[in-house]
Amino acid sequence: MHIRDWPTQERPREKLLERGVASLSDAELLAIFLGSGLRGYDAVSTARRLLAEHGPLRSLLDRSPADLAKLPGLGPARACRLAAVLELCGRHLAADLERGAALTDPHAAGRYFAQRLRGRPRETFAALFMDTRHRTLAFEELFQGTVDGAEVHPREVARRAMAHNAAAVIVGHNHPSGSAEPSAADRAVTIRLKQALALVDVRLLDHFVVGDGPPTSMAARGWV
Question: How far apart are CA 224 and CA 168, in angstroms?
């Protein structure tokens, strides 16, 4: 049965317009992007097949455009469009953190770190440097490690903060395991970072841990 033959309230596009985008499943969202399915399959069935064989959604979307182009139901044209859509989403999330923009939503920084670091095969530590009004000065990836750790040097973070003439810093790193729960080592390095930055009159505002779900704010836990 073609999607146009489905009950109106069950068609992905009509469902999105009536109930909102959050009401759609991963397969329905992907089906809207695909527009049509493989021969003999509708778009939703093709999307479900892609997710079943190459998912879940994060695993599918973390693939490179070249890898996506090889998957049935996508191909080079759709793979390029999908990569462009993901980049547009990333730039939209980063809009509040562009140079000169004040950070007014504390959660925006967490979403930005998640967008930049989630899916990395190795642990990566990054810092967002800001001025006295919490306007973004720079974002830098400072340290990379293995699949289960990265050595962080607080002195280097302080040096980069001084180079940018920063008054405040937010840091973050990913856990390739997918768990966003801060480890004892994460808490210890946060204390060392706060102390090192205080010596040069720079405030550490937060430390985000990025995993599969929402990033964990160590400031929200009272650990900064």
Answer: 13
